[in-house]
Amino acid sequence: TGGIVIAAKTAEGLRVMNQKIKDREVSKYYLCVVHGTPQPREGRLEGFLFKDEVKKQVYVRSRPQPGAKTAVTLYKTLAVKDGLSLVECDLITGRTHQIRAQFAHAGHPLIGDGKYGSERENRKYGRHGQALYSYKLTFRFTTDAGPLADLDGRTFQVDNVDFVEEFFPGYTLQK
To answer: How far, in Å, are 69, 140, 160 from residue 154 at the CA level?
Structure first.
């Protein structure tokens, strides 16, 4: 996957950026294409992620268990076509494989996801590699940002994502 990279040019800038991310003053949005249409079309996926270190796979549980971590994803369905949905995700928590595991658990695996999806379905769409991309970054500082103050209130977004054009031709990402 590609995405957006914002470089902090000093050690202080990096320290501040890490703190802003931890304090949820930086929002990182992802696009993905999933099988079916999530219901409701906009909502919240919440559960507990347990990572199997041997299989390198994450499992979603509805109740806490030893070693499992809370995972929360806000999502919004942007477009629907031919049994697929283009979905925007905002991670409230940032866990390993969070989007992939939660959507698969909800019955809407990502297109091209060999680990959490169906190989048969992936072959049908000819996609190699999951349709998941970090495409937008928004800064909303509530505390002093020091060397990063100029970023406050700004949003950085890519213009094109290959799988959006592939599965939803003519769809334009809103700025």
So the answer is: 31, 8, 19
DSSP string, 113-125: -TTTS-HHHHHHH
Residue 75 pairs with which residues in a beta bridge?
43, 89
Q: Of 135, 47, 146, 138, which Cα lies nearest the Cα of 97?
A: 47
3-state class (DSSP) for residue 73: strand
Strand locations in the chain, DSSP E? 26-35, 42-52, 57-61, 69-81, 84-91, 132-139, 155-157
Which residue's entry shows tokens 């501040």? 16
Beta carbons within 10 angstroms of residue 155's beta carbon: 13
Q: Is the peptide bond before 109 cis (omega within 30 degrees of 0)?
A: no
pLDDT tens digit sequence for 56-109: 889 999 999 999 999 999 999 999 999 999 999 999 998 989 999 999 999 999
Tokens of 45: 């996926």
pLDDT band at 1 (very low <50, low <70, confident <90, very high): very low
pTM of the predicted structure, to 2 decimals:
0.88
> What number is the average pLDDT over the span 117-129?
83
